[in-house]
Amino acid sequence: MVIGVGALLTACGGTASTPLSALTGTPQRGGLLRVGLVGGGAADTLDAHIPVSTTDIARVVNLYEALLYRDENFVLKPLLALSATPSTDAKTWTVKLRQGVLFHDGRTMTSRDVAATFARIVDPENPKSGASSLTTLDEVVVLGDHLLEFRLNTPTSTFDDSLGQYSLGIVPEDYDPLHPVGTGPFQYESFTAGRRSIFTRNDNYWRENEPHLDELRILNFSDDNALINALLATQVDAIGQVPLTMLEVLDTDPRVDILNSETGMWLPFTMRVDRAPFDDVRVRQAFRLVVDREQMVEQVLSGNGTVGNDMYAVYDSGYAKKLPQRVQNIERAKELLAEAGYPDGLDVELVTAPIQAGAVEAAQVFAQQALAAGINVSIRRVDTTTFFGDDYLEWDFAQDFWYTRNFLPQVNNGSLPTSPYNETHWANPRFLELVEEAKATIDPTRRNELIAEAQTIEYEEGGYIIWGHPNQADAYQRYVGGLVPNGTGLPLSGFEFRRVWLGGQQ
Length: 506
Hints:
Elements: H1 5-11, E1 32-38, H2 54-63, E2 68-70, E3 76-78, E4 81-86, E5 92-97, H3 111-121, E6 137-144, E7 147-152, H4 159-162, E8 186-192, E9 196-201, E10 215-221, H5 224-232, E11 238-239, H6 247-251, E12 256-261, E13 269-271, H7 281-289, H8 293-301, E14 305-307, H9 330-339, E15 346-352, H10 359-370, E16 375-381, H11 384-387, E17 397-399, H12 407-414, H13 429-440, H14 444-461, E18 464-465, E19 468-470, E20 472-477, E21 480-481, H15 491-494, E22 501-502
């Protein structure tokens, strides 16, 4: 039975007690961590190379590892690779692997496994989601057990960034996703799609003294109320993606700590640029102008976020900072709609789902704001399984969520005709030319100029409404240690549960 959050909190005596001390000291070994997340369903997967939902991502981060990764400060660092070094023309990248890394079944990871992994990802008959960032890859050549070359057909100055994606986990040559084997800190024990995943400690993990936990359980919840109630009832030890409107309530419980991280993640509205009414750029511009971004951040995120300017990759050195901040302008929005043939406004359907904390609330606030310009928004709320089902990427007007990425990796994932998640169906010719030139440009100053120019086109003509960049808020019991703020946007310190430890449940 799901009971009200407020009732359960009062029953716990949270408002009257002195907060417990946050866990500090030397990490202790052992214990079971129960992690609660909203979402997932029958389409949940353990496949290293096709994660979609938040629960999928949590699984792949702990079962598998890529060659490189972004740490909590969004710094690109070695993981299974010790180094990735470009040739002078950036057409060949030499990767030196970490030695002594074992798969969960005890076999040693070698260059042959890496080559097989990338062959699986870019398989033309069945490309995986990470293939979008590897379009310039011609071949992977094994030079030795722990040395290989990535040979590209085009100079790609940021190819190392592409290697640092969580969807590029290294797997053995004979990988079977139904019996998943990786190099991650935890190994597969059992899995029920839409319900739970149980992983146990990888005793052969290459990092010294990690992981600390004996067991990790990732539990699916149907909605935020059920998730928060489970935390307050100590049925789970940590929860990800807490609705920002609930932070003040949770903060009154002395047993609970809040992890509130500034990020570059974004929660866009997506307009299909190839279908009416959004095939008219004036309509897209009008929709962007009806948004009161500060109000959106305040109401949807309770102020826990930063105002967006219809551009992603805010941490990228080439981010177009000089473009003016877009603000609400109802009169200009009406003019644009009239010019596009909608003098009396128009009716649209907005598809939403609880895909990320704040998504449904953002849809509701947008609908209220759009009324002032004569835009009548009919909200169609579906569950996450339906949203990410057969019609995903086909909605005319919908939402999505993206974690922090730099510009070119993000473009590969969502803004090219070949991208696996081109939800706006964006295919601007000049934009594509600039992106291709930027990929091949070695000089960072010139590359940043090209990125800024490409961003300007998307800022003026694209299909995204990027109203803000939410903080990532999570919550956990105070007996949980090792969680730190994380700028990637991935919940619970980037799902790196190898670092988490328990100080004795209270």
